[in-house]
Amino acid sequence: MLHFSINRFSLQDMSKRHILLGFLFLTIFMCGCVDQKNQLNIFTWSEYVSDEIRSGFEEEFGVNVVVDTYGSNEDLLAKISVGATGYDIIMPSDYMVSIMVKENLLAELNRDNIPNFQNISPLFLGKYYDPENRYSVPYTFGTAGIAYDSSKVSPDPESWAVLWNEKYKNQFSMLDDQRETLGAAFKLLGYSINTTDPEQLRQAKEKLIEQKPFVKQYKSEAEELLIAGDVIMAHCWSGDAFRAAEERPSIRYIIPKEGSSQFIDTVCIPKSAPHKDLAEKFINYLLRPEVNAKITTFTKYGTCVPAAKEHLPEDLQKHKFIYPPAKVMESLEWLKDQGEFTQQYSRAWDEIKAK
Ligand code: SPD
Question: Which residues line ligand 1 (CB under 6 A)?
Answer without folding.
Answer: 45-48, 93, 180, 237, 239-240, 263, 265, 335
